[in-house]
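Homework help thread (please don't just give me the answer)

Our assignment gives two proteins as sequence + structure token strings and asks us to describe the second one. The first is just a warm-up. Here they are:
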Amino acid sequence: MRFGFQLIPARSLESRFNLGRNKELESAGYHSQVKVTSSSTLLFFLKDGARVPIHRKNSHFAVDGEHWTPEHLEQQIASSPELFTGNVLLRPVLQDYLLPSSVYITGPAETAYFAQAQVVYERLLGRTTPIWSRFSATLIEARLASWMRKYGLTLRDVLQPKDDFLAKLARRTIPADLKDDFDRSREQLEKLLSPLLHSLKRLDPTVASASEVAARKMRYQLGRLESRAARAHLRHEQVLERHANLLSSMLFPEKELQERHIAGIYFLGKYGPELIDRLLDEYKPDCHDHQIISLM
């Protein structure tokens, strides 16, 4: 093998082996991160500053309207390797050819890419670099944990869009007497609707269908009124609203996991280098799911 792209013979650019891997993944219940077709290859060509995909067409390669023979493509790669780049399935293979790695630490998306790239590894290198799932966790500080206990919240409750979380918390903390009033109102509404709907169903199916729609609208409006009352309660309870906003911004900022928006330096600056030892102690290597670590 020669250095760089010349390690890839033109016949290896076809996607048949990757199509087979895609079918294996889909039959196992997974989806493919990279769309692969019978004409796909692993390369892009740099033309006028844009990356143009190279497609296989019969026994030739199609590049932005041009048709190259395999020999012509290999000559182009040999003479101007800087104009060719690998796609996401080829990039890690080239990386590990140039800089062999003992293990590759991956996030969820990269793990899915590797499931497809594994056949490329085997085809070109005869081996696959092992992967290890990246440690993923939400760090919950003591004051946040105390608020979550106070309001009966789990992390799953907070990991939702901010407006949805605020509405849920508002309904949960609405005054007991007001909540009882809404519960009784729902019961009364169902008592009124049930015999009416039953009678209309016997009278005429068309009218019964319209009555079901009307009943759903009544239930919706009552629920909407309860949500508005809960949000009004939240606005009046300024401490509760502040707690809710901080919980959302610290644990699910911008609708993303904490680790994607809050830099680790924030926690290191606040808790010191000892935090690293603590994370190592708390880390559960056998758990590949998202983990929760309380900073009490």
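The one we have to describe:
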Amino acid sequence: MKKVTKKAPAKPAPVKVREFEKDLQKVGNRIKALRIKRGYTSYEIFAFDNNINRAQFGRYERGEDLRLSSLLRILKALKVSPEEFFSEGF
């Protein structure tokens, strides 16, 4: 009787940490640029006006700790579609 061996499922290629961090930084820079374009020179006022935690929004602009749901909420506040957001600089 032959012994059946199972192959381990293929693992996705690991994302290089630096590459990932650079992409998050691009997202943060884009958020900041759009905020300024909307006339908000202070991220704190933008966060307050849009009911977003001030400290958390500061982290978003620095490219830290950003979830997709948070990004979509910010884009709505900026009145920008995801397509528009990612059309420049990516």
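TA reply:
I won't write it for you, but here's a hint about the kind of observation we're looking for: The mean pLDDT is 88.
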